[in-house]
Amino acid sequence: MSKITIIGSGNIGLSLAKGLVKSGQYVQADITLTRRSIANLQEEAAFGFQVSDNNAQAVLRAEIVVLAILPQQLRKVLEEVKDTVHVSQIIVSVVSGVSCADIKQVIGEDKLVVRAMPNTAIAIGQSMTCIATDSVADVEIKKVELLFEAVGAVVVIQEDLMTSATALCACGIAFFLRAIRAASQGGVEIGFHAHDALKMAVQTAKGAADLLLQTQNHPEGEIDKVTSPKGCTIAGLNEMEHNGFSSAFIKGIKLSAEKAGGLYNE
Questions:
Q1: Residue 96 confidence (pLDDT)
Q2: Where exactly are the structural domains of the chain?
């Protein structure tokens, strides 16, 4: 079975590792996790994962190397591994705002680099992950798709859309959470206890999302089924729209995309 090294075992790195094991693609012994302090990986070592604090050594035998680190840690890590990564490996970067070209500038133009943008729902195997590359062959991209399908859904996009993907999918988690929070607050105002209102809002949001996923229908088609003439649903929807609901959501996504584009350069 192929080996994988995950550099930077924070929330995303560990969630990916656990998802890969759960899916049956890998066993723990196939996966090497690295951190600056190996003491922080004792639990994972006991669970059967390989652990290391030496990035240069950890990448040697891997078929796939995942860089799951912060933008400000990237250059240091790339300098550490540039002499040990080789042309047959797939380097998967989960680093926001950093292009394939940025990475190849340090580790060599001949290397295979694929970018991936998961979101925090990776922790429960429900990520929406976008992947992109500049020059990697379809067979290699398929391997990266398989990796992230173990922890959610995957879409392959053009690399120039990666900052947009960050706004819609990674930041987007927060936007939908805030919408659910607002719905629960509305529930309290019309008479429910906070914990009941939150449970009702969460399940209703989940039902709406699953309805679209399973039927593949357009949201407006499902909305039409709930809105009767002179009814309470259309009254509520129109009140929200008069107060800029859709417009505010769209503007927020656009601004997040602008900010995401400048992360690495800052």
A1: 85
A2: 4-165, 172-261
